[in-house]
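seq/struct pair 1
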Amino acid sequence: MHISAVILGDLELHLLVAGHWKADGGLMFGVVPKVLWEKKKPADANNMIDMACVGLIAKVNGRVLICETGIGTKLSEKRAQQVVLREPEGLLHSLKRLGIRPEEVDAVITTHLHWDHAGGLTRRDEQGGLELTFKNARHFIQQSEWDFALHPDQRSESAFISDDFTPLADGHQVVEFVDGDAEVLPGVHLRHVGGHTPGSQVLVLRSGELACAVTGDLVCQTPHLRVPWTMSADIDPLRVLQEKARLFEEAERHRWLLVLSHEPDEPAGYLEEGGRWRPEPGLA
C-alpha cells in the first residue's frame, strides 16, 4: 500500500486526517459576507460547510510526533449527528497504516484545547471510563490555554470538554506546560500566537532551512489565507490578524510547508506570491 509522505531534510511528514464534520459557515467566516465566502466553501441548507480535522504525523530524529488529535470518539450520538461527524477513528487508522502503535508515540502537540482539536487525547475504555490515547507520550500545551480551558468565559464554555484533557494531569502527569515560545524537542518549535484562544500555538518543525507549520485555528481553511478573513470564534481578532500576517510573510519568504487545520480538500501546501496556494502533491 502506498502511503504518501514528504521528506524535509531529516523530517518525515505524513498528513493526519482525524475525521470529517460540518460547521456553521458564519462561525468559520465571522464578518466576511456570506456572498463572498460561499463562493469558496458552499454551504448546505443548514448553512453548514464541510470541515476536516487535519494534523500531522512526523518522524523527527527517531521520535514519533503527532500534532492534533481531532474530535475523537467520545461525542454523544446526538452531538455527532449535529455536526455530521464522519470517520471519528481516523487518528488511529492513520497510525495503523504507518505501522505505528499508540504506545509508540513519543510526543503529542495540541494547538489548543477546543473539543474539535483535543477530543482525541482521551477515549472510553471497555468499562466506559476515560483513558489516554497515547499513554507514553509527552503532551505539550500552553499553560495559559490549560488555565483558560479549566475556567473559560461564558462565550467559550461550550468549546471545551474537560474529559478531553484533564486526564492528562489527573494521576498520569504526561502533560508538560509551556509558557510562550519554546523548542520542546530538537527541531520542534512551539509558537504562542493566542488570538483564537489565549493559549493557541502553532507547531513549527525545522530541519536546517526547511520548515513545516501546523497552523491550528490561526488559519483554518484556504479562504483564511487572506489576512482579514477570520472566525467569529476568535477571542482576540486583532492578535489573529497580526500573527497571520507574520506567519504568512515567513511562510512565503522561506517557502514553509503549511498544514491548515480544517481544510478538507487541499490542506497542505505553500503560500506563493500574491497569496496563491500551491498544494503539496505528496500530502494530497
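seq/struct pair 2
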Amino acid sequence: MVQFSDATQAPKLHTQDLSEQTQPNETVVDAAAQKEANEKQLKADFNKLQKRIRRDTGRAISDFNMIEDGDRIMVCLSGGKDSFTMLDILLSLQKSAPIQFELVAVNLDQKQPGFPEHILPSYMDKLGIEYYIINRDTYSVVKQKVPEGRTTCGLCSRLRRGTLYAFAEDIGANKIALGHHRDDIVQTMFLNMFYGARLASMPPKLLSDDQRNVVIRPLAYCKEDEIEAFSKFKSYPVIPCNLCGSQENLQRQNIKHMLKQWEIENPGRVQNIFNAMQNIAPSQLADRDLFDFETLSIDRSASRDEYEHANEQLIEGVGEFAQKAPRLKDENSIDVFNL
C-alpha cells in the first residue's frame, strides 16, 4: 500500500471529477422512473380491461339468466385464450356473487398429434379446482371420415359436443359453459347466411335438442380483441388448435377477415350487427313460420291519423281524386333524356 506522509503528496481531484462521482447518473434515474411509470400504466390498463370483461360477462349472465343458485357448471377448457379467460372470470365472479354455484373445469383431449397433454392439467392443478380430462381419439375419426383438403370442423364439433353433453350428465352438471364471444356469434350468423342459407347463430343460452343439457356462453357480450389483450396480460399457456381453427382458407377465417375489414372502415359495425341480432322484427323479414303473412288484413274502423305534412301535397292525375290535370309531354317538344 502506498503511504502518503503529508497532504501535499496526495493526488489532487479536479472539481469535475468529484461531481461525476457524487451525482447519480441521470440516465439511469430517468430509465428507472420511466419503467415505474410504464408498469403503473400497464397495471391501470389491465384493471380497466378486467373490469370491462367482468362487467360484460356479468351483464350477459344476468340478461339471459345463465347462472342460478345451486348450479353445477361444467366449464369447457380447450386451451385457447377464450376458455382460459372464461374460467378466470367465472372463478372471480364466483367469489363475489350473491348466489352459490359450483365450477368444474373439463378438457376433451382429442389426441391431436403433438398436443401438449401436460399443460392443462398443470394449469388447473395450480388453481386448486375440481377438473377432469376426457381422453377420446376424435382426431383419428375425423381424419378417417373427412377427405383430404375438406373442412374438418363440422364432424369434429359433433363428436366433441356429444362427448361433452354425455360427460356433463355423468358428473351431475346441469349447465355447460362454452367460451364463445361476441365476434364468434356474429361470424356464425354470416357463415349460416352465406353457406347455409339460413339466419341463425350461436345463442347466449341454449337448450339442447334432446332437452338434457343447457349450454351457456358467458362471454357473449365480450369482444375478441379485449379477450386477446386480457389473455396476454395473464400469460395463459395458450394451446393453438391445429385440427380446425388454424387451417387456411376456411369459411370462418374468410368471414373473420371480412368483418375485420368492415370494422377498420366503419368502427362499431360488428357491435351494430350484434345489436341487430337482439332487435329482430319478424314482420320485416320473410319467414312464414316465424310470422303469419297469409292472414294479414286491413282494419280501417278507427279514425285515421293525419300523415305528416299531408296538407302540402298536390294530387295530379285523371280521376275523381285529382286536384290538377297531369303534366303531359308536348308532342312537338324534344325529350332530352332520349337524345
